[in-house]
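Below: protein 1.
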Amino acid sequence: MAFAALAYLFWRYVRRRNSRHQPSRELLLITYVASRLGVWLAFSTFLQHHVTSSDPRENYIPILDNLLAAAVPIRDFYYPYGPFLFPSILPFYLVFGRSLAGISLFAILAEALALAFFVKSTSRLERYGEISPSWVREALALYLLNPATLYWTVFQGYHSIVQTAYSMGALYVLLRGNHAIGYAIGFFGVAGSKVLAVLDWPALLSVCRPRLAKALLGALPLLLTYAIFHIVTGNFHYGFTSAMFLQQAGPRNFYPFSEGNVWHLLTLFGDLLGFYSTFPGKLLPLLSFGICFVLGFGYWWRCQRRGLASFSFPAAMGMTTFTMSLFFLFSFYTGNYYVPMLMLPASLVVTGPTFPDQRAAWSLILISGLCVTGDVIWTSQGQSVLINAVMADSLGERFVGGLWTASILVRIACFAMLATFGLRMAVAPLPHHASESLTPVRVA
């Protein structure tokens, strides 16, 4: 939580400099380089040897070693990872002596690519009056030092930032008017990162007016990739909805992936794991997410059809924030280490002119800090931490369990607020002079 306070203070400082019309680009660049380089050097030279439990150590390294041994493709290794994720990580893993340092550097470079496309997109739109430079600087200030990104992306090398790189690249290309290529990049994020990249797809429909023919053409690379993958493995079973909402619902797998969401909180009042793993309990996440998403997306579409909202980059960031916040609220499959995929789009949303107060920014900072705190408590205490909140004999255990339970309540409230903020950003009207056509459209 100390880093959450630091992120808030840094954002406030940049915001104050903006209000005084003082330059802050150099400050942001120095902060970015110093934080990424400093954390990675500390991790690669010393701290990586003290990581005993993490996805990169327990899952990524065995998968990469099996790749080197030509023991893949095997569905059990890839599922639900995209078939191009680990071949992309492999060169960095080898260059740094098959260590976690190479995996971490890959995540840092993926983040750099995402930020580069983000800055290129916003710079392009600044010329059309859709985004002000101060808005972009405040968003970057909030993003750069948030604890979730520093801990999971920069420090440990979790892969969730990779799908953000695909998404930002796709949005930039779409803004340039190259629709088929933009859709292809956006759709291919599933093969290049993980199945959760489908959460970025609604943004592809809200950044510019959808072109159905171009979207179908852009889907071909993804479809061909998985067709070849199926032919090679002979065991293709890639159910998107089951991987995101149902697959981890069984009693054996529920706890490790559901820390912090509404379904896990309800287990405080009884043993619901059996209900969650059978019909109709296992459908609750999909139905809850689906109903809320359809209502929200339908509301945005109706506003757009009535001329009350426009296709735009801020609308795309709002739609991504809305969709991912619903995912973290309702899915069984909500590991805290996936939170970095939300941070960049949500940073633009909560610092926008639609939310002039600090409540929106605080909701994102609290999510970032409490997800790291909750993960640390979970790792140290295990599945008993929620039970300890009400049943432990030790006062210390009861305090930690109660603190962790309170953090879940705060996170649920903040995710609900973020979903609301994202939808409000998506339906917010653009300035009048920018509401017609913000970017040139290439005509085939």
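Below: protein 2.
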Amino acid sequence: MSLRILAGHAVALVVLALLPACGSRELLSNVSFSPEIISPNADGNSDVTHISYDLSRNAIVSIWLESSGGDRYTFRDARPRSAGEYGVQFSGVIDGRLLPNGEYRWIVEATDGAGQTQAVDGRLAISGGESTAPQITGFGVYPPLFTPNRDGISDRATINVSLNKPASLYVTLQNALCAGSAFPPEGQSDLDCTPYPVSEKASTREARKPGEAGLHEFDYDAGVDLGADPPPDGDYVVTARAEDAVGQVAVVTGTLAIVDGGVPRAEIVDGEVSFSARSLLIGARRRATSTISIRTSTCRASPRSRARGASASTSIPASATTPSAGPSAGRKTSSWRRSKARSITIFRPAPAPRSRAAFALPTSRSGIRLISGLA
């Protein structure tokens, strides 16, 4: 009986002796920065170093570098990682800026769920790095208030961006309520937080290739050209981001307000127009008068437009004078063609309680230009 008890105690002692050995297995192993010298200048030769390490169990991992002067540059800060093998390329860029040339001490540190911490360090040298960081030297958004509703007035916004050096350039537009996040804030699950890309203007691309140093002009139509609904009315953040070949980044932001956006429709049916003269001298004026019937409907009205009413139908007299010169010569107009049934379609925000319209004289018998109108 006593021999069995002694044998049991011996087995227990062996198990207890093995437990510490299992728990002492290295948490962090095979840590390296290779190569140990890099020259990040986008010449394709030793531009990056490969960081690799293995974890034997789940852990929180941090990676940072320390300069000879004691400055600390964090590459990864307390990232949760499961057990396994890891690798990442490092070009010497941290927080969008390339580290200065010099000698650095790197540290990879891991802490497991039991609080056990293990760190490994080594040396990295940076030399011959890119000396010029990208800068956005000019940035502007015009107009700051934008009304994409197909009336031909402020239906587009222009974003101008100037670069000091060649770099990849991206311009996006995002709802200001998203605060830069791709996910909507709590309680606003229906808010669209997608950062929409803005295209560079074709005329700019002809004069300067995308990414070249100098001025770049971007054009935003809010979907008007494609017949799509524009984003909801509100404030938006315009972000310009430039990234050079090494990975250095420059970012600037501006604001753009969308007001009275939508795709409303107004139809002018069987409008009869008479002209006071068929020809005139330069600087002279002529008048056109008409009585027309307007039918309106709205595909999507903005909150402000809905407050005015969703639809209207009325017959109204309309007249306008078109000077060839003078203070109003620079007024913004949209061109529309009349159909064979002598009806044209114009696009305006949702109608106000009463209707009015003003028209410029047609440049030919088959065309008429809309100056302004509410329906």
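The chain has three domains: 24-126, 136-258, 264-374.
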